[in-house]
Structures are given as C-alpha cells and as structure tokens.
Fold this protein.
Amino acid sequence: MSKSTAAATAPDATVSLINPEQTLKASKALLAHIKKAAAEPKAGKQNLLANEESTVAETPIWLTLTTKLHLHDSNRLQPSKIVLPHPLNTDEESTICLIVADPQRAYKNMVASDEFPKELRTRITRVIDITHLKAKFKTYEAQRKLFGDHDIFLADDRIVNRLPNALGKTFFKSTVKRPIPVIFMAQRAKVDGKKVPQPKAKKTKRDPTENVNARPLTEIVSEIRKAIGAALVHLSPSTNTCVKCGYASWTAEQLADNINKVAKDLVERFVPQKWNNVRNLYIKGPETAALPIFQTDELWLDDSKVVADGKEVAGVVPGKQKKESGEQANIGKKRKTLDAEPEAAVSEATPAKASKEDRPKKKAKKAAVPVSNDENLDKEIAERKAKLKKQKAAAKKAADV
C-alpha cells in the first residue's frame, strides 16, 4: 500500500504519490467482487427484468478522497470537470439538453448544420436559451418534466450561475443531473498580454443570429464531447469527496487509468497544500467495502492546524495533557497559545502569587453586619407579642361597649 513518505520532503511536488500497481491490484479485486456478488441470488424482492450483465454494466465505481483539513469551493453549484482517458458517458441512447446564452437560434442552426457530427446531433434533443427557459419552465411540474426528459444537461458558463433561480430544487437538490458548465463564448484576442474587450453583439429583427459571440463549430463540438466524458467533481465543505471514475463492466486496466488520472488532478487542482493534506484514497462500489490505494502516515498537517484559534504543544494531543495530570480537559473553550515548552508556558501563563506585603492595598469595604444574638432576638419577639396582645384586648373591649 502506498505511504506518504515523500509528502514531508516534497510538499509542493506535482507528481502523484499513488502506486499504479496498487491501483491495478485494487481494481481487479473490486471488479471480481462486484461480478461475484451480482451472480449470487439475493434475498427479498428481485427485479425480473434485470440480468447479471445489465446490473454489472450500470454499477459505478467511485474514488473517495479524505483530507486532513476541510475543503471549500465557493462555486459548489458548478461541478468541475476532469478529462479522462476513457470517457464515462458513451451510451448513444442518452439524451442531451443544451442551455445556451441568447439567442438560441444561432446554436440551433449550428447543431442542425451538416458540419455538426451526426452521432452527437442525434443525442442533442433540446437547445434552449435562458430567456425561453424562464418563460416555459416556471412551474414545478414543468421543471420535473424537463428533468426527466433528458439524461445530461450542459449549460453555457456565462449563464450557469443564473440556473439555480430558473430551475430550482428539482435540479440542484442532488448532484445527479446538475448542469455541466461548457465554454461557448469566443476567446478574446490579446494585445501585449491583455485581453481586448469583446464588441457587443448586434441583433436585428431580420437576423437575430448576426454577430453572435460564440466559438467556432469545431470548438463547440470539442467542448460538448469533453463535458460528456469527463469526471465531475462536486466539492462541499467537508473532508470527504467522491468522484465517479468508471463502471464495473470495464476492464481493470481502463478503470485503473481513470482512477490514477482523477486522483492526480483532484489533489493538484482542488486540495490545498496538495499531497500533504491528503489522508486516504479509496475505491469502492455502491454496496462494497472501500479498498485503499493510498494512506498517509501523518494524521495532521502540522501542530498549528489542530486547533484553529491557537497552537498546540508539539507532540501533545489536545486534551491529553490535562487528562494525564488528573485535571478536566478544557472542552468548549479557546485554548491559549503555547509557543514555549509546556512548563515554561504554564509558568508564564500563571505567574506566582504575590505576597501580602507586595499586594496593592484595596479600598476599605463596607462595615460588616454584626452577628445576631439569639437571646436578645427572642426577648424582642416576646415583647412585641405581648404588646400586640394588649392592643387586641383593648380593641375587643372597645367594640363590646
């Protein structure tokens, strides 16, 4: 199993620390287990229409990355793409919906032209711009119908940030069919290393497609193919990230190639501090155990990352030092920064108590309340009771007269 022995010496290394032999070995074992599990009869209700081959072909293989620090992506609604040596979506029966910038007629003409590849044109069943999308799919029922009519959704990166408001939770409550961003806008020319501002497109009533800011047809086709076959990365603020790399019907060599490519790009592009921040890498199926292909020797990045608000003493686990000394761990409170040795830090943080002579004189407090005398109190109570009794007797005598 691969270890992170080189991680400490080469924190900025761009090479992958994964052993290809370990990846191939794990891929063979995982595929053999999935095929064996598919052949065994399962208890309970069974799908009579499904067979062993279709079950294995539809079983995805995932690469799981666990990091030492939380990952964060500000554009979580936009999946990132990793180009694979073996594309994922090669099914010719899967349908594609293109969501483009205005006007949609220009892109419809591109798809319908003879220069557009026929095998790709048959899969694109709808081309719609953002204006018509908002007008036609306002209701929840219309959005659900659009969600079910197509398998893959591609969106121009110029309008992809506006889709959550236009499509709602039907598309964005899960990552199954979130629109994949593609670049259809024409590249800007550069003069002296600076991009030249793009002239505004002029639309006329006769020809709305005139001067459309779009790339050439060949580049658009390349962008569509790249997005369809790429692995999609959905980052969330956590230490665990899963990326689909292939299917159980593939060969072990194809699956290993994709896993190595995804692992390398995932760490280099999306993980801060790269391999020093990687804890584990696994491959697994939907219902299988995770097979490790990489494990680090260091649980933490460094001592300063254990607690975000301060620093911990080198070699001391948070809370462990106090437990050994019999004191209760400081849970739920911010720990003070300890830059020196533990004894020196404690002595600096808690200085020795000053003697009575060195202490500053405090202001005189209020006179203390004298201690009560029980005998005097009882005598006073008895006198008050006698006086009250005489008053009652006098009042009763006056009332009788």
Notes: Residues 2-13, 306-349 have pLDDT under 50 and may be disordered. The chain has three domains: 1-38+53-88+230-297, 89-201+208-227, 302-326+335-348. The chain is about 35% helix and 15% strand.
